[in-house]
User: Which sequence fits this backbone?
């Protein structure tokens, strides 16, 4: 199996992501709900790095992207210039 480079601008990764096969409910929970299941699914997904890059590049404010919650991505943006 060869390794391919996936860029955040290329959204083909979204079709191969586990969340596309699972449904959005886990990844966009009601406020105050647990994101544990979404993070578990993200942890098994090969597309997680591309997903996180996409979320950061597009300033996604809601949901779990790349295994990180909104608050975790916000904290990451504050640390990374």
Assistant:
């Amino acid at each position: 199996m060869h390794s391919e480079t996936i860029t955040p601008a290329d959204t083909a990764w979204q079709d191969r992501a586990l969340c596309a096969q699972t449904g959005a409910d886990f990844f966009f929970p009601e406020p105050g709900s647990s994101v544990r299941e979404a993070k578990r699914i993200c942890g098994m997904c090969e597309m997680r790095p591309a997903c996180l890059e996409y979320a950061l590049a597009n300033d996604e404010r809601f949901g779990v992207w790349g295994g990180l919650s909104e608050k975790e991505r916000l904290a990451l943006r504050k640390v990374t210039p």
Q: What stands out?
A: The radius of gyration is 13 Å. The chain has a mean pLDDT of 86. The chain has one domain: 13-79.
